[in-house]
Amino acid sequence: MPTLETKIETFALRQRFTISRGSKTETIVVTAELRDGEFVGRGECGPNIRYGETPESVAAAINAMADEITRGLDRDSLQGLMPPGAARNAIDCALWDLQAKRSGHPVWQLAGVAEPRPVMTAYTLSVDTPAAMAETAKANAARPLLKLKLTGAGDLDRVRAVRTGAPEARLIVDANEAWSADDFISMATELGTLGVEMIEQPLPAGEDSALAKLDHPVPICADESCRDSASVAALTDRYDMINIKLDKAGGLTEALAMADVARAAGLDIMVGCMVGTSLAMAPALLVAQSARIADLDGPLLLAEDREPPLMVNNSLISPSSTALWG
Q: Are strands 220-222 and 241-244 parallel, antiparallel or unpaired?
């Protein structure tokens, strides 16, 4: 039976990363490693303070499952023993990886999904002044899809500046719960005119019922309002899409289930990420195969990634090698 090792690791970012809730110059991830003789399965998660998670609390939650893992914990049992969140994600992905290593079959075959293809990811521009965001956009103008982090006041100026800096790029925006309903009303139509294709989580979760009564000149995607498949049904009158993140859902197992539930409810799918390494993006790529938008640029924001990393050509991410995951 496998044994568990948990690691807290820090990766420096290429540059300061800012959203409406704050800034950082490094990302801290937690990795679960399951060892069974010669076979090792790994899963990485990104603790999110938005959900009350810290690296230490997530590592403790993973370590609390050590005895269950030694007794032969499987993915189905894991869903009932741990709540959605980063800790369950790390263990779930490590279990998938370990099964793939033991069986000699890739995870996509084990999961019964199509063989993965390269996926085009959005590239995120963090919140800054319009002039600074225009310069960053100009430096990344060749990327097909840019995601702008927004924060409320001055956001239209930011989007206009980015459109000037990257006139051919597709644009999506993410307010991270920073807008009011009045902000949405005043900006949504103009954002559509500027070519913005999606607005992610404009209003705070729990205060988003107004979206059911407002026109959607640009499709709206739920992020913080949608954690797992159980939360999807309440969102169909408010949102056009949901953002599936393995760290929110609690692993690849639940993420695949969320995708099925969303499609059945008539919602489009975005697959997103925390700022993490290629090890965290590799399982998310399987869910992204059927997504309208993929936002898996975490490794592109790092000063240094894991070895071997995912191969990225501009913004096109290739499926992982089994030496990395799966």
A: parallel
Longest Cα separation, the chain: 60
Instruction: Show the domains of the chain with their CATH numbers.
Output: 3-104 (3.30.390.10), 119-317 (3.20.20.120)
Tokens of 13: 């970012």
* Residue-wise burial string across 146-184, b where 16 or more C-beta atoms lie within 10 A, e elsewhere: bbbbbbeeebeebbbbbbebbeebbbbbbbbbbbebebb
Angle among Cα 204, 295, 189 to the nearest 5 degrees reads: 55
**DSSP state string for 42-84:** EEEE---GGGT--HHHHHHHHHTTHHHHHTT--HHHHHHHS-S
Whole-number Å distance between alpha carbons of 178 and 183: 9
Q: What is the per-residue pLDDT across 203-219, written as a single tens digit (0 to 9) for each?
A: 999 999 999 999 999 99
Q: Quote the DSSP letter at residue 105.
A: S
Other beta carbons within 10 angstroms of residue 21's beta carbon come to: 13
Catalytic site residues? 149, 245
Residues 86-136: pLDDT tens digits? 999 999 999 999 999 999 999 999 999 999 999 999 999 999 999 999 999
Q: Compute the distance between CA of residue 201 and CA of residue 173 in angstroms, rounded to an integer.
A: 9
Per DSSP, the chain holds a count of helices (H) and strands (E) of: 11, 14
